[in-house]
Design goal:
The chain contains eleven helices and no strands. The protein has one domain. α4 packs antiparallel against α8 and α7 packs parallel to α11. It has about 260 residues and is mainly alpha-helical.
């Protein structure tokens, strides 16, 4: 298992696509922070009544918005495993370690960690914008920051597992990435529909941090009103579904 984890880490660091995705994530988060934090301060009339981001609640809202970038772990997993499945690399890997569950575990560990580092850096960047451009005073206690980053890790594991499952089912990087984009976009839209929001991975991913009652920003984020305890259970069930799907889809077919 240690060998597989080390091999996955080396492959990830050699992929320029990962660093390109990190750059894209940074641009998207920067734009989001500008329009939700800075723009209402510098152009209140053009913001059409959008209130400036308050502190310390703004830190939590910013973290929820960044955690909602679920396309990142999903596409990262689909891209990394998909390129191997569509070539002879996957078959070669099985000659060294035939147990597919170990391959799934190694990829889940490395890709979730890589995604968590990228999302964590984006959360820190968004928080810095809130610190400079938000109104009011105060910050979150250390326990809340710990909760934010722990919740972010759980979310990355869930979405990476689904990305691996999509690759196993579709057996190609192109179809898997396309399906990942469609799923991420469709799931986020369905998450706004209250009957589905209770089981939505997108809605429950953002609900892990709780809801700020009365905040216009909070009402724009899927999962408003879902208890954090229930959100943990739903995200964990999605993770189990993703891991089981990845193992089953990869185990039932020849390399």
């Amino acid at each position: 298992m240690t060998y597989l984890v080390r091999a996955e880490l080396v492959k990830l660091l050699r992929r320029k696509a990962y660093f390109l995705m990190v750059a894209i994530l940074g641009v998207l988060v920067a734009m989001m922070a500008f329009f939700t934090v800075v723009f209402p301060r510098i152009a209140p009339d053009a913001a059409e009544g959008l209130a400036p981001m308050p502190k310390p609640d703004g830190y939590l809202i910013a973290a929820q918005q960044v955690i909602g970038q679920t396309w990142f772990p999903l596409i990262l997993a689909a891209m990394m495993l998909g390129t191997e499945i569509s070539s002879s690399f996957w078959a070669t890997s099985l000659t060294r370690e035939a147990r597919r569950l170990r391959h799934v575990g190694a990829r889940l560990l490395v890709l979730s960690g890589a995604s968590w580092l990228a999302i964590g850096a984006a959360i820190a960047g968004a928080a810095a914008v809130v610190a400079v451009g938000g109104v009011g005073e105060g910050t979150l206690p250390a326990s809340d920051w710990l909760k934010i980053y722990a919740s972010s890790l759980l979310v990355q594991v869930a979405w990476v597992s689904l990305g691996l499952a999509l690759v196993g089912l579709l057996r190609g990087v192109g179809p898997a990435v396309g399906a990942a984009l469609a799923f991420s976009f469709g799931e986020s839209l369905l998450g706004l529909w209250r009957p589905y929001a209770n089981v939505s991975l997108t809605a429950n991913s953002t609900a892990l941090l709780g809801t700020l009652e009365g905040s216009v920003f909070a009402q724009m984020i899927p999962g408003s009103g879902i208890p954090p305890g229930r959100a943990v259970v739903v995200v964990a069930l999605w993770t189990l579904l993703g891991v089981a799907g990845a193992w089953w889809s990869l185990a039932r077919r020849d390399p």
